[in-house]
């Protein structure tokens, strides 16, 4: 239902004297800024956010509604919604309140039903919502206005934190009105924040003249000082004076007293009806009020008529609405605390008994439940379970509140505690989850309960990187468990923990035992964990074929693990299958951050450095949106190594700073190894070869270098660092690891080529280097081929062999095409090579501009042309066979480099460059 304006903030009743534009007195400057924003968005300046902030009654609603009217008059499609205080458990309710209504609505009911079916995939849901809004905005500018945004449900808040930036290039204006509390949205570079201050004395005087005429008594002016510049309070005073005459009784100086005066003249049944309504919220249905009153709705006609006649309620048809939330609060405040609590508790029980969802009952329980209220424990727990996939943070709050209400020795304590541990873990509150579980274990539960608690704590400990503690606890619990499902899950957790250890053979045996137990128990969760553990163990052991086998089985069983299968296949050089896999993911609501990490890893292997960097930027942004930066170190290490290939040491150092901070916050062994290796590459490039070699050695502190999957493709570079640092033993050790890895993976060209390359460097053997090139020519990775060709060329140059020239030419051309400018420079700078090529240049170095059309990468130009041709982000992604999230990243970079604000501006630049007619594949 689109919110009406039933005498909104400072708005008098229709037909009252004066007050033709109530609430706008003293707001002329703010209204003019909002009008300018509407016109800028309409005229193609791109998206924007306007945030109206202020205390209740200060005039936010009337400004918002006036802006809605202005936008409608200028041809905008409008979504006008309002968040409700007691509806914050309903996923996406705040956005849906406007999106589904209007003439026509911004979203169809079919579109929204599709979204509602994927509430548990927040990133997918927001991207799909963005696509729908973007498609609508392609035809007409869009205004999305939400009042009382401080009460928005968590899923709407998440969407509002992402959508404005996502739709920045589209003509979408977001208008968010709320109280002064800080909010997690509306803080972008295109945000206009309008804090509404108290009205000036001049504005209050003008408001008084609107109501009372030109001759306003001095006594009235003094009374208006009691409104403290709040237009709603001032309007209430003036309305009372206008109704009673200038010589009437002095109006109250506080709204609660004024409402109490109104209530005093009401019949007792009407008074009870209004108080019930104030407990149900600003908006409520007559049926709910009737249920709480214990009367049929048809019997409340007289009470409803009297409540409306007092100016306290407005009838919207589908629901009743207090004319302003300050009025509801005044009625609510007139109830004693014990009466409020009792009414909320009764409301929860009646709503639950009537079959209403927990979303309706739980807000009342949170205001009324007391320790020992077992019905409340059950309802809160059920609500937490229902919403854990949608709003894990809120589910954690509800589950912990349920646990607090359980009597200390009640049998349900452990069930409620287990639910709280699971919810806290899903919400990312790992330390609190562990502490909650340990407090329950300290109560010495029965052995089966002990095992079950240790099982759910296993997930918590895994996320805390406490693998030794996970191993210890899982082993202890397995000695006590008899339930086959819990046993299978515990065994799988133990296998996951052992995947991080040194004895991968024992880990594999544990994983196989876990899989057998899971199949016997018929438990899906245990099977997923066991397959995941076996895949991780195989990858860590360097058995790439086995890793593909297990991760493929896992992906078939649960498509959410498709990214893991893709990464496993990348390690086998099976790039064609990986492309098909990522293509089949399409628009499915999988794990987008991990999918794009896999895409970035593939592009890195293919030598598409610009595309890989864009993918890693996108993956990091998506993790940040979800507040789960679990892959941050790997992302930034990869981006730093890409920056070094390009010769951008400043960017590499920025990435290194982020890695240092992230490792300090999460110092697991994998993060530390990746960090140490990145430090080594930077030190080596800076000429400190001895320190670099020592850093490579320190990267092997816990495990051999090739144990770390992220570092496996860089083993040849590590050999070179060791040799330049004078550490031949380290170089020989690394070359031996590469040989062992090749022996385990004889069908993987990169593994065999890297082994020959590493051995050729250690032994200074051109024959091995030549073999490396031959092998790598059969594989899909250009950069290892370029490195082997460069080292072969240098070795042949030293021997005076003319075959050096073509080898160096091949290396240079591959590096130049990939954008690895630093490596291309190294190869090209050799004077002997220059003479051998007789000045021939095949490609040259692309200068890296910071701004302008020449600064765009090849992929960014493709995106720019498609968007300029009228594509949406989604259709551009389909044309390029990439994720819409990656298109978003490209667009943000394009807008920054071209200093444009909208698709209209971008189209003009593309046209001016003469590129508008080129096909996307022209680069």
Task: Characterize this entry briefly.
63% of the residues lie in helices and 4% in strands.
| Biggest sheet strand line-up | 2-3-4-1-5
Number of helices: 46
**Helix/strand/pairing category:** mainly alpha
Strand-residue fraction? under 5%
Report on the biggest sheet: 5 strands, parallel
Radius of gyration: 33 Å
The geometry reads as: globular
Any low-confidence stretches, pLDDT <50, length ≥5?
1-20, 246-254, 836-847
Mean pLDDT: 87
> Roughly how much helix do the residues carry, as a percent range?
55-70%
The N- and C-terminal alpha carbons lie at a distance of 50 Å
Total strands? 8
Give an overview in words.
The longest helix is centred in the middle third of the chain and has 18 residues, at 504-521. The protein has 923 residues and is mainly alpha-helical. Helix 25 runs antiparallel to helix 26 (544-557) and helix 32 packs antiparallel against helix 33. The strands form two sheets. A five-stranded parallel sheet has the order 2-3-4-1-5, sandwiched between helices. It has 46 helices and eight strands.
């Amino acid at each position: 239902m689109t919110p009406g304006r039933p005498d909104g903030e400072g708005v008098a009743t229709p037909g009252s004297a004066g007050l033709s534009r109530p609430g706008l007195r003293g707001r002329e400057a703010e209204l003019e800024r909002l009008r300018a924003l509407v016109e800028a968005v309409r005229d193609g300046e791109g998206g924007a956010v306007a945030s109206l902030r202020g205390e209740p009654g200060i005039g936010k609603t009337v400004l918002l509604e006036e802006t809605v009217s202005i936008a409608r008059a200028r041809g905008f499609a409008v979504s006008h919604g309002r968040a409700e205080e007691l509806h914050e458990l309903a996923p996406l309710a705040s956005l849906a309140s406007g999106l589904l209504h209007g003439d026509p609505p911004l979203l169809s009911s079919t579109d929204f039903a599709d979204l509602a079916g994927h509430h548990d995939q927040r990133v997918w849901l927001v991207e799909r919502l963005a696509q729908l809004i973007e498609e609508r905005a392609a035809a007409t500018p869009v205004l999305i206005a939400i009042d009382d945004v401080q009460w928005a449900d968590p899923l709407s808040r998440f969407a509002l934190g992402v959508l404005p930036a996502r739709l920045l290039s589209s003509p979408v204006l977001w208008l968010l009105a709320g109280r002064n509390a800080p909010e997690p949205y509306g803080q972008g570079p295109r945000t206009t924040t309008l804090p509404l201050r108290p009205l000036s004395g001049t504005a209050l005087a003008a408001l008084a003249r609107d109501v009372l005429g030109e001759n306003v008594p001095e006594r009235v002016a003094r009374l208006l000082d009691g409104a403290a510049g709040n237009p709603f309070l001032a309007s209430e005073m003036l309305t009372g004076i206008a109704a009673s005459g200038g010589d009437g009784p002095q109006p109250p100086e506080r709204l609660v007293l004024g409402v109490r005066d109104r209530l005093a003249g009401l019949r007792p049944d009407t008074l009870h009806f209004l108080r019930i309504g104030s407990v149900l919220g600003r908006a409520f249905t007559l049926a709910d009020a009737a249920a709480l009153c214990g009367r049929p709705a048809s019997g409340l006609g007289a009470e409803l008529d009297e409540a409306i006649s007092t100016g306290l309620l407005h009838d919207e048809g589908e629901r009743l609405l207090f004319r302003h939330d300050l009025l509801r609060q005044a009625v609510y405040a007139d109830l004693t605390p014990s009466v409020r609590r009792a009414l909320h508790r009764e409301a929860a029980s009646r709503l639950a008994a009537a079959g209403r969802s927990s979303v309706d009952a739980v807000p009342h329980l949170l205001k009324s439940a007391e320790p020992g209220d077992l019905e409340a424990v059950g309802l809160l727990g059920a609500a937490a379970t229902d919403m854990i996939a949608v709003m894990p943070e809120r589910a954690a709050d509800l589950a912990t509140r349920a646990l607090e209400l359980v009597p200390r020795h009640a049998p349900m304590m452990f069930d409620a505690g287990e639910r709280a541990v699971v919810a806290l873990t899903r919400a990312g509150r790992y330390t609190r989850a562990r502490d909650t579980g340990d407090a329950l274990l300290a109560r010495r539960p029965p052995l089966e309960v002990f095992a079950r608690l240790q099982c759910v704590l296993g997930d918590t400990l895994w996320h805390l990187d406490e693998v030794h503690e996970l191993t210890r606890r899982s082993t202890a619990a397995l000695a006590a468990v008899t339930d086959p499902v819990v046993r299978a899950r515990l065994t799988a957790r133990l296998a996951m923990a052992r995947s991080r250890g040194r004895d991968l053979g024992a880990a594999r045996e544990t994983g196989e035992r876990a899989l057998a137990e899971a199949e016997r128990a018929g438990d899906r969760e245990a099977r997923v964990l066991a397959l995941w553990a076996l895949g991780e163990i195989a990858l860590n052991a360097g058995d790439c074929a086995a890793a593909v086998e297990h991760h493929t089985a896992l992906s078939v069983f649960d498509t959410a693990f498709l990214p893991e299968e893709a990464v496993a296949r990348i390690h086998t050089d099976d790039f064609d299958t990986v492309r098909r896999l990522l293509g089949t993911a399409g628009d499915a609501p999988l794990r987008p951050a991990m999918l794009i990490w896999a895409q970035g890893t593939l592009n890195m292997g293919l030598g598409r450095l610009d595309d890989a960097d864009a993918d890693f930027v996108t993956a990091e942004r998506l993790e940040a949106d979800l507040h789960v930066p679990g892959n941050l170190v790997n992302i930034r290490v990869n981006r730093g190594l890409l920056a070094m290939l390009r010769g951008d040491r400043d960017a590499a150092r920025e990435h290194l700073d982020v890695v240092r901070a992230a490792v300090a916050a999460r110092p697991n062994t994998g993060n530390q190894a990746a960090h140490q290796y990145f430090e080594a590459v930077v030190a080596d490039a800076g000429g400190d070869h001895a320190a670099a070699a020592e850093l490579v050695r320190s990267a092997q502190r816990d495990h051999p270098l090739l144990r770390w999957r992220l570092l496996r493709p860089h083993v040849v570079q590590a050999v070179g660092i060791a040799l330049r640092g004078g550490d031949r033993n380290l170089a020989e050790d690394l070359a031996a690891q590469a040989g062992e890895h090749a022996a385990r993976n004889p069908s993987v060209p990169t593994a065999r080529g890297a082994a020959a390359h590493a051995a050729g460097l250690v032994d200074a053997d051109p024959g091995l280097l030549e073999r490396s090139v031959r092998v790598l020519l059969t594989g899909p990775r250009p950069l290892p081929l370029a490195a082997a060709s460069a080292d072969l060329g240098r070795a042949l140059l030293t021997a005076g062999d003319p075959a050096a020239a073509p080898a160096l030419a091949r290396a240079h051309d591959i590096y130049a095409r990939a954008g690895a400018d630093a490596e291309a420079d190294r190869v090209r700078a050799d004077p002997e090579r220059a003479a051998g090529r007789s000045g021939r240049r095949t490609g040259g170095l692309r200068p890296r501009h910071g701004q302008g059309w020449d600064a765009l990468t090849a992929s960014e130009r493709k995106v720019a042309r498609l968007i300029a041709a009228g594509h949406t982000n989604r259709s551009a992604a389909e044309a390029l066979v990439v994720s819409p999230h990656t298109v978003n990243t490209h667009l943000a970079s394009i807008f920054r480099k071209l200093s444009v604000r909208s698709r209209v501006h971008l189209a003009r630049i593309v046209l001016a460059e003469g590129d508008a007619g080129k096909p996307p594949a022209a680069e």
